[in-house]
Amino acid sequence: PELKGDNADRSAYFRSVAESEVSIATAIAPRLAQFEVQAQRQQDLVEVLQFLSPATMTWQSLTALAGSDGARHREFRGQTIAFHERWSAFFREPLLRGATLTPMAYAALPQFEFNEPPLSSTLLRVLPVLAALLLVSLLLGTVSVWRLRRFPIV
Fold it and tell me: Residue 154: is its pLDDT beyond 80?
């Protein structure tokens, strides 16, 4: 609108921007949903096959305990997507009506606040993996001690 000068219809311009945002979001929604499904399939496969690799089990456990695992990331992503929708609606709905935002409206901007998943859900995910790691360690330790006892000391 700055290029058209003072006689430009700003509300029409902002309405067209809001309409463009809606059409873009509608166009990419199927691709984003497809991506989410594929990412979940991949994570499901890793969760099943992790028991074949002690390194993967250790990594999964440590990242979960540190709060940087895939489950927490998915929770964060879900909350940010929901927040983005509230944020976009805050601007989109008045702009589509041709209304202007007032300073009081800006005071009501949605605020993002991450709600941490409960620690109990993290522990429930990690405990079976840690138990499997302990079992593998005990098994390897027992076999090692048994085999070492069979060798004579020089």
Answer: no
